[in-house]
Amino acid sequence: MRQIIRDMGMAGCTYVEPYAGGVGAGLSLLVTGQVERVVINDLDPAIHAFWATVQAEPEYLIDRLRKVPLDVKEWRRQREVYVSADTRDLPKLGFATFYLNRTNRSGVLNGGPIGGLDQTGNYKIDARFNREGLAERLRILSLYSDNIVATSRDGVEVITEYAAKNDTFIYADPPYFEKAGSLYLNAFAAENHEALARVLNSVSDSHWILTYDCQSVSAASRKDGEVLAGAF
Protein backbone atom coordinates (compact mmCIF):
# COMPACT_ATOMS: atom_id res chain seq x y z
CA MET A 1 0.00 0.00 0.00
CA ARG A 2 2.86 2.34 0.80
CA GLN A 3 4.46 1.70 -2.58
CA ILE A 4 1.17 2.22 -4.43
CA ILE A 5 0.62 5.57 -2.75
CA ARG A 6 4.16 6.66 -3.57
CA ASP A 7 3.88 5.53 -7.20
CA MET A 8 0.65 7.50 -7.56
CA GLY A 9 2.32 10.62 -6.17
CA MET A 10 -0.18 10.75 -3.29
CA ALA A 11 2.11 10.98 -0.28
CA GLY A 12 0.41 13.09 2.40
CA CYS A 13 -3.09 12.27 1.17
CA THR A 14 -6.18 11.35 3.17
CA TYR A 15 -6.53 7.58 3.50
CA VAL A 16 -10.09 6.26 3.80
CA GLU A 17 -11.34 2.84 4.86
CA PRO A 18 -15.14 2.72 4.43
CA TYR A 19 -15.23 -0.79 5.98
CA ALA A 20 -12.55 -0.31 8.57
CA GLY A 21 -12.26 -3.26 10.92
CA GLY A 22 -8.68 -3.20 12.14
CA VAL A 23 -7.31 -0.46 9.84
CA GLY A 24 -3.81 -1.87 10.27
CA ALA A 25 -2.50 -0.60 6.94
CA GLY A 26 -3.97 2.87 7.31
CA LEU A 27 -2.64 3.48 10.79
CA SER A 28 0.80 2.23 9.80
CA LEU A 29 0.80 4.68 6.90
CA LEU A 30 -0.24 7.49 9.26
CA VAL A 31 2.38 6.77 11.91
CA THR A 32 5.16 6.51 9.31
CA GLY A 33 4.13 9.79 7.71
CA GLN A 34 2.98 8.39 4.37
CA VAL A 35 -0.53 9.85 4.74
CA GLU A 36 -1.75 12.96 6.53
CA ARG A 37 -5.13 11.76 7.77
CA VAL A 38 -6.99 8.48 8.20
CA VAL A 39 -10.77 8.22 7.97
CA ILE A 40 -11.97 5.13 9.83
CA ASN A 41 -15.56 4.28 8.98
CA ASP A 42 -17.54 1.23 10.04
CA LEU A 43 -21.28 0.79 10.26
CA ASP A 44 -20.82 -1.84 12.95
CA PRO A 45 -21.55 0.12 16.17
CA ALA A 46 -19.03 -1.87 18.19
CA ILE A 47 -16.16 -1.33 15.76
CA HIS A 48 -17.02 2.35 15.50
CA ALA A 49 -17.20 2.64 19.30
CA PHE A 50 -13.66 1.33 19.61
CA TRP A 51 -12.16 3.68 17.04
CA ALA A 52 -14.15 6.65 18.30
CA THR A 53 -12.72 5.98 21.76
CA VAL A 54 -9.19 5.61 20.37
CA GLN A 55 -9.63 9.03 18.79
CA ALA A 56 -11.36 10.81 21.68
CA GLU A 57 -10.52 8.97 24.93
CA PRO A 58 -7.46 6.74 24.48
CA GLU A 59 -6.55 7.14 28.15
CA TYR A 60 -9.80 5.38 29.08
CA LEU A 61 -8.79 2.33 27.04
CA ILE A 62 -5.27 2.33 28.46
CA ASP A 63 -6.51 2.53 32.04
CA ARG A 64 -9.07 -0.24 31.55
CA LEU A 65 -6.71 -2.66 29.78
CA ARG A 66 -4.17 -2.35 32.61
CA LYS A 67 -6.73 -3.26 35.28
CA VAL A 68 -9.32 -5.54 33.68
CA PRO A 69 -9.40 -9.19 34.86
CA LEU A 70 -8.45 -11.80 32.29
CA ASP A 71 -10.78 -14.69 33.03
CA VAL A 72 -13.94 -16.28 31.65
CA LYS A 73 -16.18 -14.44 34.11
CA GLU A 74 -14.96 -11.08 32.80
CA TRP A 75 -15.09 -12.38 29.24
CA ARG A 76 -18.79 -13.15 29.66
CA ARG A 77 -19.42 -9.69 31.06
CA GLN A 78 -17.61 -7.96 28.20
CA ARG A 79 -19.41 -10.13 25.67
CA GLU A 80 -22.77 -9.00 27.09
CA VAL A 81 -21.70 -5.39 26.60
CA TYR A 82 -20.62 -6.14 23.05
CA VAL A 83 -23.78 -8.02 22.06
CA SER A 84 -26.02 -5.29 23.52
CA ALA A 85 -24.29 -2.75 21.22
CA ASP A 86 -25.52 0.12 23.42
CA THR A 87 -24.05 3.23 21.82
CA ARG A 88 -25.05 5.51 24.69
CA ASP A 89 -21.70 4.69 26.29
CA LEU A 90 -19.20 4.47 23.42
CA PRO A 91 -16.08 4.00 25.59
CA LYS A 92 -17.65 1.06 27.42
CA LEU A 93 -18.73 -0.59 24.16
CA GLY A 94 -15.41 0.24 22.54
CA PHE A 95 -13.43 -1.41 25.32
CA ALA A 96 -15.65 -4.52 25.24
CA THR A 97 -14.92 -4.79 21.51
CA PHE A 98 -11.20 -4.43 22.18
CA TYR A 99 -11.33 -7.00 24.99
CA LEU A 100 -13.02 -9.64 22.84
CA ASN A 101 -10.66 -8.98 19.93
CA ARG A 102 -7.69 -9.69 22.17
CA THR A 103 -9.14 -12.65 24.08
CA ASN A 104 -11.09 -14.51 21.37
CA ARG A 105 -9.67 -17.15 19.06
CA SER A 106 -8.16 -15.42 16.01
CA GLY A 107 -9.62 -12.15 17.29
CA VAL A 108 -13.06 -13.01 15.87
CA LEU A 109 -15.54 -10.95 17.87
CA ASN A 110 -18.35 -13.50 17.65
CA GLY A 111 -16.02 -16.39 18.50
CA GLY A 112 -15.15 -18.01 21.80
CA PRO A 113 -12.30 -17.29 24.22
CA ILE A 114 -8.80 -18.59 23.63
CA GLY A 115 -8.49 -21.82 25.60
CA GLY A 116 -12.24 -22.41 25.60
CA LEU A 117 -14.80 -21.65 28.30
CA ASP A 118 -13.20 -24.31 30.50
CA GLN A 119 -9.70 -22.91 29.83
CA THR A 120 -8.23 -26.33 29.06
CA GLY A 121 -6.59 -25.40 25.75
CA ASN A 122 -2.86 -25.08 25.16
CA TYR A 123 -3.23 -21.30 25.26
CA LYS A 124 -5.29 -19.39 27.77
CA ILE A 125 -7.46 -16.30 27.56
CA ASP A 126 -4.53 -13.96 28.27
CA ALA A 127 -2.32 -15.29 25.44
CA ARG A 128 -2.78 -12.19 23.23
CA PHE A 129 -3.34 -9.64 25.99
CA ASN A 130 0.07 -8.09 26.59
CA ARG A 131 -1.02 -5.21 28.79
CA GLU A 132 2.03 -2.98 28.49
CA GLY A 133 2.54 -3.68 24.81
CA LEU A 134 -1.07 -2.85 24.00
CA ALA A 135 -0.97 0.25 26.20
CA GLU A 136 2.07 1.51 24.30
CA ARG A 137 0.37 0.95 20.95
CA LEU A 138 -2.65 2.92 22.12
CA ARG A 139 -0.41 5.65 23.49
CA ILE A 140 1.28 6.02 20.10
CA LEU A 141 -2.10 6.23 18.35
CA SER A 142 -3.21 8.89 20.82
CA LEU A 143 -0.41 11.11 19.51
CA TYR A 144 -2.14 11.09 16.13
CA SER A 145 -5.71 11.52 17.38
CA ASP A 146 -6.10 14.86 15.58
CA ASN A 147 -5.35 13.07 12.31
CA ILE A 148 -7.92 10.30 12.82
CA VAL A 149 -11.59 10.68 11.89
CA ALA A 150 -13.94 7.95 13.15
CA THR A 151 -17.40 7.69 11.60
CA SER A 152 -20.26 5.19 11.48
CA ARG A 153 -21.95 5.49 8.09
CA ASP A 154 -22.88 3.32 5.16
CA GLY A 155 -19.65 2.55 3.34
CA VAL A 156 -21.19 3.42 -0.03
CA GLU A 157 -21.94 6.93 1.23
CA VAL A 158 -18.36 7.33 2.42
CA ILE A 159 -16.95 6.17 -0.91
CA THR A 160 -19.24 8.53 -2.81
CA GLU A 161 -18.14 11.49 -0.68
CA TYR A 162 -14.39 10.92 -0.68
CA ALA A 163 -14.02 9.63 -4.24
CA ALA A 164 -14.79 13.17 -5.39
CA LYS A 165 -11.68 14.49 -3.60
CA ASN A 166 -8.41 14.43 -5.55
CA ASP A 167 -6.20 14.03 -2.48
CA THR A 168 -7.94 10.90 -1.18
CA PHE A 169 -7.01 7.23 -1.42
CA ILE A 170 -9.77 4.70 -0.65
CA TYR A 171 -9.15 1.13 0.46
CA ALA A 172 -12.44 -0.81 0.25
CA ASP A 173 -12.32 -4.11 2.09
CA PRO A 174 -16.00 -5.05 2.61
CA PRO A 175 -17.37 -7.88 4.77
CA TYR A 176 -16.86 -11.41 3.43
CA PHE A 177 -19.45 -12.82 1.06
CA GLU A 178 -19.75 -16.09 2.97
CA LYS A 179 -19.81 -16.52 6.78
CA ALA A 180 -20.21 -12.78 7.23
CA GLY A 181 -23.05 -13.28 9.69
CA SER A 182 -20.75 -15.15 12.06
CA LEU A 183 -18.04 -12.48 11.90
CA TYR A 184 -19.83 -9.12 12.03
CA LEU A 185 -22.78 -7.45 13.71
CA ASN A 186 -23.49 -5.78 10.37
CA ALA A 187 -23.04 -8.36 7.62
CA PHE A 188 -23.49 -7.84 3.87
CA ALA A 189 -26.35 -9.27 1.84
CA ALA A 190 -26.05 -9.80 -1.93
CA GLU A 191 -27.67 -6.44 -2.65
CA ASN A 192 -25.03 -4.70 -0.53
CA HIS A 193 -22.25 -6.21 -2.63
CA GLU A 194 -24.07 -5.12 -5.78
CA ALA A 195 -24.50 -1.57 -4.45
CA LEU A 196 -20.78 -1.42 -3.67
CA ALA A 197 -19.96 -2.59 -7.19
CA ARG A 198 -22.18 0.07 -8.70
CA VAL A 199 -20.66 2.93 -6.74
CA LEU A 200 -17.09 1.84 -7.45
CA ASN A 201 -17.89 1.47 -11.15
CA SER A 202 -19.28 5.01 -11.07
CA VAL A 203 -15.99 6.41 -9.68
CA SER A 204 -13.62 4.24 -11.68
CA ASP A 205 -11.30 7.19 -12.32
CA SER A 206 -10.80 7.87 -8.61
CA HIS A 207 -8.02 6.48 -6.42
CA TRP A 208 -9.29 3.27 -4.85
CA ILE A 209 -8.45 -0.38 -4.30
CA LEU A 210 -10.94 -3.17 -3.63
CA THR A 211 -10.16 -6.50 -1.97
CA TYR A 212 -12.47 -9.49 -1.65
CA ASP A 213 -12.48 -13.06 -0.39
CA CYS A 214 -12.45 -15.87 -2.95
CA GLN A 215 -16.11 -16.75 -2.40
CA SER A 216 -17.17 -13.25 -3.44
CA VAL A 217 -15.31 -13.49 -6.73
CA SER A 218 -16.76 -16.94 -7.43
CA ALA A 219 -20.28 -15.72 -6.70
CA ALA A 220 -19.82 -12.69 -8.91
CA SER A 221 -18.68 -14.80 -11.85
CA ARG A 222 -21.96 -16.71 -11.69
CA LYS A 223 -24.14 -13.61 -11.86
CA ASP A 224 -25.69 -12.50 -15.13
CA GLY A 225 -25.20 -8.92 -16.24
CA GLU A 226 -22.64 -6.15 -15.83
CA VAL A 227 -23.42 -4.87 -12.36
CA LEU A 228 -20.49 -6.65 -10.67
CA ALA A 229 -18.08 -6.76 -13.59
CA GLY A 230 -16.13 -3.61 -12.80
CA ALA A 231 -15.64 -4.42 -9.13
CA PHE A 232 -13.62 -7.57 -9.69
From TrEMBL:
<dbReference type="InterPro" id="IPR012327">
    <property type="entry name" value="MeTrfase_D12"/>
</dbReference>
<dbReference type="InterPro" id="IPR023095">
    <property type="entry name" value="Ade_MeTrfase_dom_2"/>
</dbReference>
<keyword id="KW-0949">S-adenosyl-L-methionine</keyword>
<dbReference type="Pfam" id="PF02086">
    <property type="entry name" value="MethyltransfD12"/>
</dbReference>
<comment type="similarity">
    <text>Belongs to the N(4)/N(6)-methyltransferase family.</text>
</comment>
<keyword id="KW-0489">Methyltransferase</keyword>
<keyword id="KW-0808">Transferase</keyword>
<dbReference type="InterPro" id="IPR012263">
    <property type="entry name" value="M_m6A_EcoRV"/>
</dbReference>
<dbReference type="InterPro" id="IPR029063">
    <property type="entry name" value="SAM-dependent_MTases_sf"/>
</dbReference>
<protein>
    <recommendedName>
        <fullName>site-specific DNA-methyltransferase (adenine-specific)</fullName>
        <ecNumber>2.1.1.72</ecNumber>
    </recommendedName>
</protein>
